[in-house]
Write a structure and sequence with these properties.
2 copies of one chain form a homodimer. Chain A folds into 2 domains: 48 residues, Homeodomain-like (Arc Repressor Mutant, subunit A), CATH 1.10.10; 114 residues, no CATH class. In chain A, 74% of the residues lie in helices and 0% in strands. The first copy, chain A, has 11 helices and no strands. The first copy, chain A, binds a DNA duplex through α1 and α3.
DNA sequence: ATAGATACCGAACAATATGTACGTTATTGA
DNA sequence: TCAATAACGTACATATTGTTCGGTATCTAT
């Protein structure tokens, strides 16, 4: 990827994140982003077709980092079998805490919902192998339940309860969930 | 409320719901709604200032109906103490199933997230008295966990698993939750 | 260092959406 | 019947959108 492209892309991301701390996702116009990033109109459209696509790209950038080691460990079966589910969860929480600065704006309003939806897509892959059916509950449902409630746990944590450590959040989660 | 106002309001709601089955929330413009409902531009703005406000009003209309008996039973302490938490949950699920036609469009994309957020606001009130702290988990968290996972259960159910009955969904939910 | 490729600029453009204003018409409720 | 008012519809200024295109600056490979 061209250095100029990386620079422009990064400038757009920065401008977008900054705007989301001041305004709601809906009220942020592409014009706002162009002005904030101080780039040409056509330049923006050369990178992203819509605001939604921009948001998705930003989320992907963040999650690819957060889950990078997760994905690695998926390939390395030895490692994945040695580390417990709880350890992996705690691990993800640590990574999210690191990235907290850049995702703060992503939690406000409608934007937070979209952010969480993408987070869930990544979580499905991690959770799938760890969820076992109990009783008459369909596996499909059990997986969705575990993933959704974890995503909501992340929201609860990063949006007003930062005083807790990743390990504590992990404990709360597993105390509330039947696995 | 004037009969004309009720009529116009209803026409706007119908048009909006219809549009949401065809297009995403973001892509639906106020102009679209005006065209679909076939009303004057200024008439729309006499009722709602923004699209978000319209969505909120529509959700409120639906939930006020779904939770109407719930709210009644909250006032009537005798009844509320006799009916179990599980019964109340099942009751809510029955009402949501009834309203399924009118809320189908509300589940697509970003709109679904906003719909669920409003649903959660109503659920907090119902759940609050039924959630008791266990272990070291903060009451705050336990309540959020129960409400969020129930809202996501509703999403899972109405968005692709209609084959289950309200009682079954209720069972799945309580099987997965530690209370 | 040079040259070819290409990302960015910026100005312009039509098309559409937004929010408001105001005089007119039709319906309502008392 | 009549006063109140909801809805109409036309108009308007403003803003956003998405696209085009020629010129400039920057990059990468040789």
């Amino acid at each position: 990827m061209d250095r100029r492209q990386r620079r422009t892309r990064s400038m757009i991301f920065t401008a977008f994140s900054a705007l989301l701390e001041r305004k709601t996702y809906t009220s942020v116009t592409i014009q706002d982003i162009i002005d904030e990033a101080d780039i040409g109109r056509s330049t923006f459209y050369a990178h992203f077709e819509t605001k939604d696509e921009l948001l998705k790209a930003l989320c992907t950038d963040i999650f690819d980092h957060v889950f990078s080691e997760e994905i690695l460990s998926e390939e390395n079966h030895d490692f994945s079998h040695h580390s417990s589910f709880r350890d992996r969860i705690t691990h993800i929480l640590y990574h999210l805490q690191e990235k907290q600065q850049s995702i703060r704006g992503l939690f406000s309003g409608e934007c937070g919902e979209i952010f969480l939806r993408y987070l869930k897509e990544y979580l499905y892959r991690v959770f799938d192998e760890h969820i076992s059916v109990s009783g008459d509950v369909p596996h499909d449902y059990a997986l969705d339940f575990a993933v959704s409630s974890f995503a909501e746990t992340v929201r609860w944590w990063l949006k007003g309860h930062n005083e807790y450590k990743p390990e504590e959040i992990s404990d709360f989660y597993f105390e509330s969930l039947r696995i």
